[in-house]
Design goal:
Radius of gyration: 19 Å
Number of strands: 14
Strand content: 15-25%
Subunit structure: Monomer and homodimer.
Cofactor: [4Fe-4S] cluster
CATH topology: TIM Barrel
CATH class: Alpha Beta
Largest sheet: 12 strands, mixed
Strand order of the largest sheet: 9-10-11-8-7-6-5-4-3-12-13-14
EC number: 4.1.99.22
Oligomer: single chain
GO molecular function, one term: 4 iron, 4 sulfur cluster binding
Pathway: Cofactor biosynthesis; molybdopterin biosynthesis
Bound molecules: S-adenosylmethionine, iron/sulfur cluster
Length: 330
């Protein structure tokens, strides 16, 4: 018997994003500080706890789960967890966001485990710039990973690019061309003010409308009303039927009215909105009631009534939320 979840504003919640680790092999400038302290093992959810929560949310009507992090593919046992979650009756799709660094080895096992789609982050096609943005990343390894994913049989692969003035705005057209040549989708994301990463965010802010203007210089844009169950708006380009170009614009276009998601941090905090601090501590309940889901269900239900109506990001208002993206599950 599958339930359904609604928040206090009548929004239907059927999408859960789960962070499976706060760790990562990269240190992207917009996501982490150079020196990071990661959580001790006992504070993060075990694979069994992650599975228990996934099953509980699917039982409450969640149709789509995205595993993210940190870098989900650095968590040991991730492929087995994917296999278990993908098999939950009632779940329509299990998807993942990854930085691509481990895909040469893991793309095929993930596809075989039942992961339907991948989002792969790619901010630059120039090795030195890629390294500067990720601080540790090797571009070729990620490009090989993208190729391995293309061969592995996912239903769809989307690239994610955080557009930043002075860092990669001059590569917008190259990145679009890269995606089109491979029949991939690509989404450009406005940088969000999460965590103190040691610099002012306003410096590098580059709006989705500026990205769109750059694309319009080379391609004929066809507006599209397509939705992927996420916050992105899409366009298509004349002559390229396979690829969609998306924009995630928390600053310039507010998408809260149709929000259908909640997030679970790697510590088991259920975050009701990316732009607010209010959350529900599910880890304590998981550990206090190992055999009884009812206290968890009650806490989730009560929490949803407190899901905020909207976030309040602005790009000149620097740090409003003190968590880092890697602990939140981007
Ligand atoms: N490590 C994986 C990756 O990089 O794809 C998954 C986790 S990462 C936090 C998820 C997405 O969030 C990535 O596409 C990343 O570019 C994006 N991201 C991280 N920090 C961000 C920020 N401050 N603003 C906007 N997007 C951000
Ligand atoms: Fe790691 Fe992803 Fe954050 Fe980059 S954006 S530091 S790859 S978690």
């Amino acid at each position: 018997m599958h339930g359904s979840m609604q928040d206090g504003f009548g929004r239907h919640i059927d999408y859960l994003r789960m962070s499976v680790t706060d760790r990562c092999d990269f240190r992207c400038v917009y996501c982490m500080a150079e020196e990071m302290t990661f959580l001790p093992r006992e504070q993060i959810l075990s694979l069994e706890e992650l599975y228990r929560l996934a099953a509980l949310f699917v039982g409450q009507g969640v149709k789509k789960i995205r595993l993210t992090g940190g870098e989900p593919l650095v968590r040991r046992g991730i492929v087995g967890l994917c296999e278990q979650i993908a098999a939950l009756p009632g779940l329509r799709e299990l998807v993942m966001t990854t930085n691509g660094s481990q895909l040469v080895k893991l793309a095929k096992p993930l596809a075989d485990a039942g992961v339907k789609r991948l989002n792969i982050s790619l901010d630059s096609l120039q090795a030195d710039k890629f390294h500067a943005i990720t601080r540790t990343g090797d571009l070729q390894q990620v490009l090989d990973g993208i190729e391995a994913a293309r061969q592995a049989g996912f239903e769809r692969i989307k690239l994610n690019t955080v557009a930043m003035a002075g860092r990669n705005e001059d590569e917008v057209l190259d990145l679009v061309e890269f995606a089109l040549a491979r029949d991939l989708d690509i989404t450009f994301i406005e940088e969000m003010p999460l965590g103190d990463v040691g610099r002012s965010r306003g410096e590098s802010f580059f709006a989705s409308d500026q990205v769109r203007d750059l694309i319009a210089e080379r391609y004929s844009i066809i507006d599209s009303a397509e939705q992927s169950g996420g916050p992105a708006r899409y366009i298509r380009l004349e002559g390229f039927a396979q690829s969609r170009i998306g924009f995630i614009s928390p600053h310039s276009h507010n998408f809260c009215a149709t929000c259908n998601r909640v997030r679970l941090t790697v510590e088991g905090r259920l975050l009701l909105c990316l732009g607010h601090e209010n959350s529900v501590d599910l880890r304590a309940l998981l550990r206090r009631y190992p055999e009884n889901d009812q206290p968890l269900l009650d806490a989730v239900g009560a929490g949803l009534q407190r899901k905020p109506e909207r976030h309040e990001f602005t790009h000149d208002n620097d740090i409003q939320v003190v968590r880092f993206m890697n602990a939140t599950g981007g």
